[in-house]
TrEMBL record:
Gene3D superfamilies: 3.40.50.2300. PROSITE patterns: HTH_LUXR_2 (PS50043), RESPONSE_REGULATORY (PS50110). Residues 3-119 form the Response regulatory domain. This is Response regulator transcription factor. The lineage of its organism: Bacteria, Bacillati, Bacillota, Bacilli, Bacillales. The modification 4-aspartylphosphate is found at D54. Keywords: DNA-binding, Phosphoprotein, Transcription, Transcription regulation.
Length: 201
């Protein structure tokens, strides 16, 4: 019996996945979560064989949950399910040695088949993502620039960011200027938009 935890913030999709998977004799859903923090609590408690994680969830993203699983050396297999074919997300998933990266518009039988394959040690990636993987662009931003852009995305001003990161306003402006140059855009808002689209922040 394969024990599965599902973390997906869309209740309808989560419910459909659970209902169909529970019909399979070899699959058993041991927990469901609507956000990343809830998912992590479940994973610690239930020690599932497979975690199916949405990427964009409240509190912790699917990739952040995956990183925690890896950092704690939990042996469970990880499947990312997403609507996003962004190169940055895919590269981060590959760096975390994710076992499966599956698009949400795949047929349910493909998803069930992927669960069984990863339990046998295979890696599964949706076919539509193959081109994205080969055309992958490297993130030009460093860790500090990423952190600053994330705070801009969350609506913080330069003054607020400088207090939050314990850096001068001039230093924050320098990081933003470098980010704008590297991303070949004209404003901080465009820099945030492009970084989000690429899956870099």
């Amino acid at each position: 019996m394969i024990k599965i935890c599902i973390a997906e913030d869309q209740q309808l999709l989560r419910g459909a996945l659970i209902s169909i998977m529970e019909l399979e004799e070899d699959l058993h859903i041991v927990g469901e979560a609507a956000d990343g923090a809830e998912a992590w609590t479940l994973i610690e408690k239930e020690k599932p064989d497979v975690c199916i994680l949405d990427i964009e969830m409240p509190h912790l993203s699917g990739l952040e949950v995956a990183a925690k699983i890896r950092n704690h050396n939990f042996p469970c297999k990880i499947m990312i399910m997403t609507t996003f074919a962004r190169a940055g997300y895919l590269q981060e998933a590959m760096d975390l040695h994710i076992d499966a990266y599956v698009l949400k518009d795949e047929p349910i039988q493909y998803v069930i088949g992927a669960v069984r394959k990863i339990m046998q040690g295979e890696r599964v990636i949706s076919q539509d993502l193959a081109a994205t993987l080969f055309m992958n662009e490297k993130n030009p931003l460093n860790e500090r620039e990423i952190n600053v852009l994330k705070l801009v995305k969350d609506g913080y001003t330069t003054n607020e960011i400088s207090k939050k990161l314990f850096l001068t306003k001039g230093t924050i402006r320098n990081y933003l200027s470098l980010s704008i140059q590297k991303l070949e855009v004209e404003t901080r808002q465009q820099a945030v938009q492009k970084a989000v689209e690429k899956g870099w922040i």
